[in-house]
Design brief:
single chain, alpha/beta, 2 domains, seven-stranded parallel β-sheet, four-stranded antiparallel β-sheet, 12 helices
């Protein structure tokens, strides 16, 4: 018998399981699963999660004994969680200790803009049209048959790591009070990072999490929804999934057993199509905040909705401190001039090419402040 401790190619492990399922050889399947689990616990890295997910989806249609199906599902879930968590941790890895941690006692709003090609916005729009068709015309099947294929491709694209969010959790840790995050991003990454960092977060339309009254809370406003948020087509119930390994595109409603789909809609035009209350609350938070931190602000006509939200709020706000994070100096200059013209009491700090740059500057300022006070 082959030594179980000897590493083997993932494709061989997958092929062994697939052959066992095709031949309905459940003893071989059980032994194959035992060996794969042994290798995993022994430290062998399983990285080809897409192939394992494909195997799981294919196996779901086969008549596998329930106990073996659960073992297969648990194994794929376990290796997927490890791989995806490592990808995200690589993005948000903190390369230093921020000495300015929890030093800012101001109401702050962090705005994160993510640029999308028109093709992405078109796919999001088609998804919303299909979703609305089901909601308003129950029992009919007039939606695009390619819907799920396009949605799957969209979800894969939206799940890519975002390098410009490196240092994001350290940035949030600088602030003492309850604060808000506003974004046009459909990605689940920000929300999942908050949950992974054990930060209290409120998602619009979702029940507020239970926490101690003294705990700091982050309000999260994804203006077009997020790919990990789902709405029931029958009762309008909403849920959010925050597991790193979750790739589901359809859920079952826990309230009415109806079907749930990702609750996302276009944000690139001139009118909001989703969760109007989120837009209203985001606007209100901008007006009342004393500090704005804007990551990758939109340039020219990109994301007109978000651009107009910021400009209109600047005219009516009492914001005092604005920090702009962008690697493009011309974008910084454009927004600096607009804010100085509209927000009369605001001071626009120097440009920061990245979140890490802002954190390093804040840490240095904190150290200098300590020297002065000594």
């Amino acid at each position: 018998m082959t030594d179980q401790r000897f590493p083997e190619a993932e494709t061989l492990s997958i092929k062994r399981l697939k052959v066992a399922i095709e031949k309905a050889n459940w003893e071989l399947l059980e032994k194959g699963l035992e060996k794969a689990e042994y290798l995993r616990k022994a430290g062998q890295a399983f990285k080809q999660t897409d192939l394992w997910q494909d195997l799981l989806l294919w196996a779901e249609r086969e008549n596998i004994p329930p106990n073996l199906w659960e073992k297969l599902k648990d194994f794929v879930d376990a290796i997927s969680e490890v791989v995806i968590s490592k990808r995200q941790e690589a993005v948000i890895a903190e390369d230093y200790t921020a000495s300015a941690q929890s030093s800012v006692d101001k109401n702050v709003v962090i705005v994160y803009h993510q640029h999308y090609d028109q093709s992405v916005m078109t796919t999001v729009g088609k998804h919303r049209a299909n979703l609305n068709n089901i909601i308003h015309n129950p029992g009919k099947s007039g939606f695009d048959p390619k819907w799920m294929d396009e949605l799957s491709e969209l979800a894969a694209e939206l799940g890519e790591p975002q390098d410009d969010l490196k240092g994001f959790i350290s940035l949030l840790s600088m602030f003492k009070g309850n604060s808000s995050i506003i974004t046009n991003s459909y990605s689940a990454n920000i929300h999942k990072m908050l949950v992974k960092a054990e930060m209290n977060v409120i998602y619009p339309g979702i029940k507020k999490p239970e926490s101690d009254a003294t705990d700091k809370i982050w309000e999260f406003f994804p203006l077009g929804g997020a790919i990990n948020s789902f709405i029931c087509t029958t009762c309008d119930n909403r849920i959010v999934k925050t597991e790193y390994y979750s790739k589901t595109l359809v859920e079952n409603c826990g309230k009415c057993k109806g079907t749930m789909y990702p609750d996302i809609a276009p944000t690139g035009g001139h009118h909001s199509e989703i969760i109007p209350q989120a837009w209203y609350n985001a606007y209100e938070r901008l007006i009342n905040a004393k500090m704005w931190i804007i990551i990758n602000p939109p340039f020219h006509n990109d994301q007109m909705q978000l651009r107009n939200l910021l400009l209109d709020a600047a005219q009516k706000s009492n914001v005092e401190d604005i920090r702009i994070i962008t690697p493009k100096f011309e974008v910084y200059e454009l927004w600096k001039s607009k804010f100085l013209n509209l927000a009369k009491n605001a001071h626009v700090k120097e440009n920061y090419p990245s979140i890490v740059s802002l954190l390093e500057t804040s840490a240095n300022e904190s150290v200098e402040g300590e020297k002065v006070s000594q």
